[in-house]
């Protein structure tokens, strides 16, 4: 199956400009061209774009993504370095999750504190305020 650039953009959730940019910086191999010379993205291309999107969501820098993409072209011989890049990024994500969990804990503490203040001030649990007998 092949997809136009507009359809690839829609399916991947990336803009047409981003697809062209990824191609320009060599994150994405130039897609095949149809008989009219227009880009024709494959299911494999869309799968790769999905993976790149996940890498960006992890906060991976473009530089690391470019290294990974370059290594990918070397096949099995580069598997060790590709794995190392992912292991490093995984640690970064785990650290960020821990940091965010600390933030969430503080928010939960403050919310519970305000609920306690409301109970003392109004003598009613906030979730019970809208209930009438």
Automatic annotation (TrEMBL):
Residues 1-71 form the HTH merR-type domain. It holds the Pfam family MerR_1. SMART domains: HTH_MERR. SUPFAM superfamilies: Putative DNA-binding domain. Keywords: DNA-binding. It comes from the Bacteria. PROSITE patterns: HTH_MERR_2. PANTHER family: HTH-TYPE TRANSCRIPTIONAL REGULATOR ADHR, REDOX-CYCLING DRUG-SENSING TRANSCRIPTIONAL ACTIVATOR SOXR. This is MerR family transcriptional regulator. It comes from Amycolatopsis silviterrae. The lineage of its organism: Bacteria, Bacillati, Actinomycetota, Actinomycetes, Pseudonocardiales.
């Amino acid at each position: 199956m092949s997809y136009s650039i507009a359809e690839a953009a829609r399916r991947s959730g990336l803009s047409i400009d981003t697809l062209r940019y990824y191609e320009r910086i060599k994150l994405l191999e130039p897609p095949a061209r149809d008989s009219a010379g227009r880009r024709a993205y494959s299911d494999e291309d869309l799968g790769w774009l999905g993976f790149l999107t996940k890498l960006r969501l992890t906060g991976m820098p473009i530089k690391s993504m470019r290294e990974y993409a370059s290594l990918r072209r070397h096949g099995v011989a580069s598997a060790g370095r590709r794995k190392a890049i992912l292991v490093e990024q995984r640690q970064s994500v785990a650290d960020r999750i821990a940091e965010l969990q600390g933030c969430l804990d503080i928010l939960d503490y403050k919310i519970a504190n305000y609920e306690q203040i409301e109970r003392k001030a109004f003598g009613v649990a906030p979730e019970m305020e809208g209930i009438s007998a």
